[in-house]
Amino acid sequence: MRRFISWQNIERYRRMLATETDDARRQVIRKLLAEEEEIWIGLSAAEDTGKPNSN
Q1: Are 26 and 17 in contact (CB under 8 A)?
Q2: What would the pLDDT profile of 12-26 be if each residue is shown by its tens digit?
Q3: What pLDDT band is residue 49 in, cutting at 50, 70 and 90?
Q4: Whose CA is closest to 45, among 32, 35, 55?
Q5: Contacts of 53 (CB under 8 A, 6+ apart)
Q6: Distance (Å, rounded) from C-alpha 26 to C-alpha 52?
Q7: pLDDT grade, residue 48 (50/70/90)?
Q8: What is the tens place of the pLDDT at every residue in 24-35?
């Protein structure tokens, strides 16, 4: 379930980047996107190895 939510967040941030014009806001969105991508990668790796993940 957490992996699904993480993926939905990634998609949302990508859509936000496509429409946001303010540079400061874009910078925040890019940071959030990068953080969420790291979470998603960690969750995917944990799922692939069968190990529990604390995220």
Answers
A1: yes
A2: 999 999 999 999 999
A3: confident
A4: 55
A5: 2, 42, 43, 46, 47
A6: 33
A7: confident
A8: 999 999 999 999
Q: Which two tokens stand for residue 43?
A: 């969750």
Q: At how many degrees (to 10) do helices 2-19 and 23-49 cross?
A: 160
Residue located via tokens 């190990």: 51
Give the 3-state DSSP-derived string for 14-40, with helices as H, strands as E and coil as C.
HHHHHHCCCHHHHHHHHHHHHHHHHHH
Pairwise CA distance, residues 39 & 37, whole Å: 5
Tell me, yes or no, if the pTM score tops 0.90: no
Q: Are 53 and 42 in contact (CB under 8 A)?
A: yes
**Is the separation of the CB atoms in 17 and 30 below 8 Å?**
yes
